[in-house]
């Protein structure tokens, strides 16, 4: 996992989205521009990546399926990054949601 972090540090955005456009996105139109900050403190704007294929991944440390898909995203990044494939991953700063009632989901 360390190789993924170092190889994609400039692309892996883990802090809050800073400048999301107020306009609602429309199918078939370019995505609204946004700005994120990487692990290394660099700012990345979606507009700066124009022409690249972008996966914007929303995940959380408490989300099992989210953690399970990270190796797949790493493999895609390693295989296709030289062709303009980018992965931007965002996680909320909030802790695991708490259930107020009901049974726990199966694991």
List keywords for this structure.
107 residues; two-stranded antiparallel ribbon; Glutaredoxin; globular; two-stranded parallel sheet; 2 helices; alpha+beta
What does this structure look like?
The protein is an alpha+beta fold. It has helices at 2-7, 64-80, and strands spanning 35-37, 43-45, 53-58, 85-90. It has a single domain, classed as 3-Layer(aba) Sandwich (Glutaredoxin), CATH 3.40.30.10. The two termini are 24 Å apart. The relative contact order is 0.21.
Number of strands: 4
> How many discrete structural domains?
1
Q: Tell me the Rg in angstroms.
A: 16 Å
CATH architecture: 3-Layer(aba) Sandwich
Distance between the termini: 24 Å
Report the order of strands and helices.
HEEEHE
Number of helices: 2
Here the CATH topology equals: Glutaredoxin
CATH class assignment? Alpha Beta
- Shape descriptor: globular
Q: Main sheet, how many strands, which sense, barrel?
A: 2 strands, antiparallel
Task: Quote the average pLDDT.
Answer: 73
Major β-sheet strand ordering: 1-2
| Unreliable stretches | 1-21
The CATH homology group name? Glutaredoxin
Instruction: Please state the structural category.
Output: alpha+beta
């Amino acid at each position: 996992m360390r190789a993924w972090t170092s190889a994609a540090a400039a692309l892996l955005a883990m802090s809050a989205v800073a400048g999301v456009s107020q306009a609602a996105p429309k199918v078939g139109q370019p995505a609204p521009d946004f700005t994120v900050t990487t692990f290394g403190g660099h700012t990345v704007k979606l507009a700066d990546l124009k022409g690249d294929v972008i996966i914007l991944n929303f995940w959380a440390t408490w989300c099992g399926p989210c953690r399970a898909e990270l190796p797949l995203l790493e493999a895609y990044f390693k295989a296709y990054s030289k062709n303009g494939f980018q992965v931007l991953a965002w996680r909320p700063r909030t802790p695991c949601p708490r259930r107020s009632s009901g049974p726990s989901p199966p694991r």
